[in-house]
Every structure is written in structure tokens, then in C-alpha cells.
Amino acid sequence: MFENITEPVIIVAVAMIIFLATPLLMKKINLPGIVGPILAGVVLGPNGLNLLARDSTIELLGTVGLLFIIFIAGLELDIDGFLKYRHRSLVFGLLSFFGPLILGFTVGILFQFSVAGSLLIGSIVGSHTLLSYPIASKLGLTKQKAVITTVGGTLVTDVLAMLFLAIISGMSAGDVGVQFWVRLLVSTTIYVGLVFIIIPSLTKHVFRLNGLDGASEFNYVMVVLFVSGWMAMYAGLEPIIGAFLAGLSLNRYIFSQGALMNRINFTANALFIPFFLLSVGMLMNVAALFSSVRALLLTLFITFSLLVGKSIAAYLTTRLFHYSKDEAWLVLGLTIPQAAATLAATLVGFDLELINQNTVNAIIIMILISTIIGPFLTEKHGRRLLNDTPVETTASKRAERILIPMSNPTSVEPLMDLGFLVRASLKSTEPLYPLKVVKKHAKQAEHDVIDAEKMLGHAIFYAAGAEVPVRPLTRVGLNVGKTIERTITEESITTVISGWSGTPTQSEKMFGTIIDNVIDHTYIRHLIVKEDEPIQMTKRLVVILPKQVVYKPGFSDAIHITKNIVKQLSCKVLYVVMDDDFEKTKQAIEAIKPVNNPSFTHLPDWFLVERYCLKLPSHDLILAISARKGTIGWHPSLDELPRKLSLHSTHNFIVFYPYENYELDVRGQRQTPVSVIGAHYDES
């Protein structure tokens, strides 16, 4: 035993060494990195070498880490995925929670815990953490039905765990009678209602503010997190309930590929969550674990209730939905690990004196065992499923490179945000290519190049916040459009994302001479975006599909990208079909991966489409699948739609030009209209 370290600088230094070294050591012995700080807390804490005390500083930082864990769980929940597979997910979630809960509750009663304490033990083993999910992701099994069912069931177990924790916390505070249940129901209903009404509304206004930088956005999210936790206490709930609800309320406004989400994850995972894990490890007393037969039996019984309860849930679910043996083991491997919610509930229960030191020891041992078994089963049986899992292929093996020409400093972040979404949709590993073209003037070229480097520096800094690599390009040329076209060729660009102010430079042009010429002289994807408010404010993507557009070579590719954008934004999608063969278009869209839950409407006339778009709510993002003049699907009204939307509405909108096969381009001479009669749609 040693004397406690009291110097703050030394305490932080020791903690940082722990956070750096222990995850690396755990990887060497094939254990999850999360185990490292916990074991360090056991060894260096008051029940070990006594180097670090579990004082107010550790408790403060650990509490913040706890709130971050639950908050991020709410942020990352795939709400739409759960709704889509709600029947399977609901069945599995209920079995996976209540099966272990009954066993855990029985263990608590057998060991003479109170009803509240027994329920807490049951809810602890009933929840689970998708600690093994990254393994399934690396194996390419995220679309596998067993994985989808498990991820959806996680929403059920998380919500039930939070609900039980709220009830248990209330039970521990006083007499459990009619008045308690009425008060809990009323206060919870009011609190939840206020969270889901006020926070989304306030978030819309805050994110629309001009000049809001990344630090201000992050600080706003922190205000939402901690004020929600604070208000939960006034409602008679635990702060982690408020953190979870805060995450859910912001779920649709912070997309996973954005810089803001990366800042949240970085802050949590680099600093506060490790402090929480360290503080949990400090609670464990190894000597007490082996001090009595009762303590050992409690550990064995709690671990038994977890393993048996989760195994029964996985077995029944996979038999009910006719999953294979390896799929059943994969489900079990994903749901055995205990970490975030388990640690959170354990700490709360210990603070409320519902469980004792022996129980904390038993739960931490259970966590360590589960974090070894779960990843092992996931990797072993996930690899066995690889041969049976269809591998998605793309039409082109070219590296997906996205060029983002920039001219206005205020449009840098909106264009980069769309670039993040498209890059993730294409699963590209290439950097983004922000481009600034400087006109070649003898007197001003040098000054303009300096300004260009400042603008590109902003793009680099913003992309770094989202951990997206960039390759900034500065080009000097007499003709901006020709310089962009030359860059497309030199850098093997496959997609261009351009911003548009909403005002064309000439009446006969759609977007202005530069953009129009680049569209006309290239065959790759081109997205033109007019954005009046942040794209993460989107509640629904409205996709306009002109007649004959399904016959375009790049149609399936364009729909694939839009579906992935919908998935990342966690928004709804509506397809406005103009083609006379409505059912064929609908079937073609539904056959393209990923599978969403789309809505469809049929508007066969351009006049109806324009009127419909102008009446849409402001939070809808309009995306028109367009066509280059003279190619299949082109219509004069396509050229007029952006101008009309810009003049008569405040909607964000994107005009998406799919790629054209150079060899199959039927325009003949540029911009020569051709007949679409006899066009053939290849359904493969």
C-alpha cells in the first residue's frame, strides 16, 4: 500500500498514462480496450495499491463520463432501423431484457436484497452493450439479418433499462404507494414532453444562426446534455435518464459523419469516459471478493443469470425467425457484453445504497467475463457467415474521388458537410478534393492565391474535425470552367459538388456559365446545392424523378447515394414519380440497396410538381434527379425548376446529375435533343 497522490498535476499525469497505455496492453492480449482503465482502477485505487483516491475530482470527471456514455447511446440509436425491423427487434429486445431480468431478480431475492435492489440487479444483467459490433462491422455483416435484429433490440433493452432505473430510483427515495406512482408518471410525462418539444425546436433555431462556429455548436450540445440531466433530478429521475433523452432529442440533428459528432465522440472517448471506467474500477475490492463463500456465490450466480438469460433469448429468437446456428451464436456474441448501461446502473445503485461492495465486485467480474466471451463468439461465427453473405459490388472499380469547387468562404462548411455525406454513401477511402480556382491576372494573382489558401485552410480545419482526409487544390487559369474540367481529368474525379447562390448570371443559363459548362462537358456525377439552412435540419428528403429517368445509366447509382444520405441524416424520404409506369419505377427503387422505408406519390405533370414543391414544409430537402440536355430523361422543365424554386421558396435543394456512360452517350453533337423512343432499361 502507498500513500495517496494529492497533487492535481500528478493525478492527471497518472490518469493520462493509464488512458494511453492500458488500451494498448489490452489489445496485446486480445481484450477490449475498455477493460484497461477498469483494471487500472482496481490495481491503483483505494482497494489496491492506494495510489489514487476516489475523491471528489475523480467522481466529478467520472460522472461526466457516465453522462457522455448514455448521451452518445441516445445520439447513435438507429431509430429508423428499429422502426423498419420493429417486430423482430421488439420480440428479441423483450426476451433479451426480461429473461435475464427474471433470473437476476431471483438471484437478488435469494441473497436477501430488497425488492428495489433485486430489480436493479435484474435490469443490470438485462441490458447489453454492442461492444462487439465493430467486429461485425469490420467483417461486413452490418446488413446481415441477425445483426440488424440485434441492433434494433438494443433500443428496446436500453429504453427498458433506463425506465427500470427511473422506477428503482424513485422506489429508493420513499414509500411506494399510489401517490408515488402518480407523481412519477406525471413528472416523467411532463419532463419527457418538454425535452422532446423544447430541445428540437430550440436546436433548429440555434443551428440556423449565421456565424455559429464549431465551438459554439459543441457548447450548445453540452448545455442540452447537462441541463437535461439537471432537470431530470427535479422530475425525480436520475441525471442519466436526462442524458439519454437529450441524445434521443438531438438524434436527427447531429449526423454521424459530421464534425460535431466527431467532436462529441473525441471529447468523451479521449477524456471523460476513461475517467468513468477508472472510477468504476476503484469500486472493486478483490480481497472482499474472496473473503467469503457468499461473495463468490453471488459472483457466480449473477454471471450465470447473464449467460443463461442471454442464451435463452438468442435461442428463442433465432428459432422463431428461422436463423441458422451461426446466426444464433452471432446474436449471442453481440448481446453478452456488458459495459455502458451496466456500469451506469451499477454506479447509480451503489450511490443509492441499493447494492453493496460485494455486488459491485460481482458485477465488475461479470463485465470482464462478458467482454471476453462476446467478442470471441462474434468474430468466430461472424467469419463462418462470411461465405454465406452476399457481397455488394459496384459497377465501377474506380476510386471514388469527390471534387468540391469553392468560391465563397461562407459556403465552405455546407459544401464540406454534403461532401462528408456523399463520401460516406460511396464508402470511399479517398480524401475530399476542395478546389479554389484563381483567375490569371498579372497584378492580382498572387493576392488571390493567398485568399484561396485561407479558404482551403478553413476546409482542411473543418474536415479535420470530422476526421475526413482532404487534398486541397489551388489552380490558376484564364477560364474557371475549363480549369475545373482539366482538374477533373488530372485527378480522376468521379463526383463534383458545387454550390449555387440561387441567381444565374445569364437568363438563358440554369446555374451560370461556369457550372453549366462543367455539367455539359463532363460525364461524371454532379451535385449542385443551394442551402439556406444546415443540411442536418432536414426532416424529409423529397426526390423528384422525371419521366424516363429510370432508363439512365446512372439511375441506380444515384438512388443508392440518396438512400445512404437519408440513412445518415435519419430522415424520411418521399419519391415524387412522374413516369407513367408508376409501379415499375417504384419496384426499381425498392430493389436498390440500402433498404429504406420510402413513401411514393405520382405527379405526371411538371406544373403539378412545381406547385407541390412550393407547398412543401421548409424542413424538407428537395433533390431533383436531373439529366444533361439531350440525354434520356431530359425535359425543358428540368432546367427551369431550380430557378423557380430559388425565386419562390426558401427550401434547400440539390440538383443531382447522374453519371453518363461515355460510350453510350446518345447526344451526338453536344446539347442535341434526341428521342427517347426505344430506350432500354437494364434491370440488372
Write up what this structure looks like.
This is Sodium:proton antiporter. The protein has helices at residues 8-28, 35-44, 56-76, 79-84, 86-110, 115-126, 133-138, 145-173, 178-208, 214-234, 239-249, 259-283, 286-289, 293-320, 325-335, 340-351, 357-386, 412-425, 445-465, 480-490, 513-521, 555-569, 582-590, 606-614, 636-648; strands at 402-405, 432-439, 473-477, 495-499, 525-530, 540-545, 572-577, 599-602, 620-625, 652-657. With 684 residues, the chain is an alpha/beta fold. It folds into three domains: 8-386, Na+/H+ antiporter like fold, CATH 1.20.1530; 392-530, Rossmann fold, CATH 3.40.50; 531-684, HUPs (Rossmann fold, 3-Layer(aba) Sandwich). Strands 3-2-1-4-5-10-9-6-7-8 form a ten-stranded mixed β-sheet, with helices on both faces. Helix 6 packs antiparallel against helix 8.
Query: What structural class is derived from the secondary structure elements?
Result: alpha/beta
* The CATH topology of the largest domain: Na+/H+ antiporter like fold
Shape: globular
Structural domain count: 3
Radius of gyration: 28 Å
> Total number of β-strand segments?
10
Instruction: Report on the biggest sheet.
Output: 10 strands, mixed
Question: What CATH architecture of the largest domain would you give?
Answer: Up-down Bundle
What's the CATH class of the largest domain, please? Mainly Alpha
Transmembrane segments: 6-26, 33-52, 58-77, 89-111, 117-135, 147-168, 180-202, 267-290, 296-316, 328-348, 360-377
Family: Belongs to the monovalent cation:proton antiporter 2 (CPA2) transporter (TC 2.A.37) family.
Membrane topology: Multi-pass membrane protein
Subcellular location: Membrane
